[in-house]
Amino acid sequence: MIRAVFMDKNDTPIKKIQVNSLAMLGLIICGVAIVLMGLMSWIYDYINALM
């Protein structure tokens, strides 16, 4: 069902966002940190216990 929606060509497609390499690196670092903090919640608990 979802695949059929994206198979049709659109007259006004959304433009690809141009991001410089430094901003992309920052986004990747933040994304990785968010995922790691979610997967390793014991780190957050340790930091919270220090305060």
Q: If you compute it from the alpha carbons, what radius of gyration comes out, rounded to the nearest whole angstrom?
A: 19 Å
* Global outline: elongated
Number of helices: 3
Pick out the low-confidence regions.
none
**Fraction of residues in H or I helices:** 55-70%
Strand content: under 5%
- Distance between the amino and carboxyl termini: 50 Å
Structural class: mainly alpha
Structure overview:
The chain has helices at 2-7, 21-39, 41-50. It has three helices and no strands. It has 51 residues and is an all-alpha fold. The termini are far apart. Helices cover 69% and strands 0% of the residues.
What's the short version?
The protein is mainly α and 51 residues long. It is built from 3 helices and no strands.
Features:
single chain; 51 residues; mainly alpha; 69% helix; elongated
Layout of secondary structure:
Blueprint: H1 2-7, H2 21-39, H3 41-50
Helix pairs in contact: 2-3
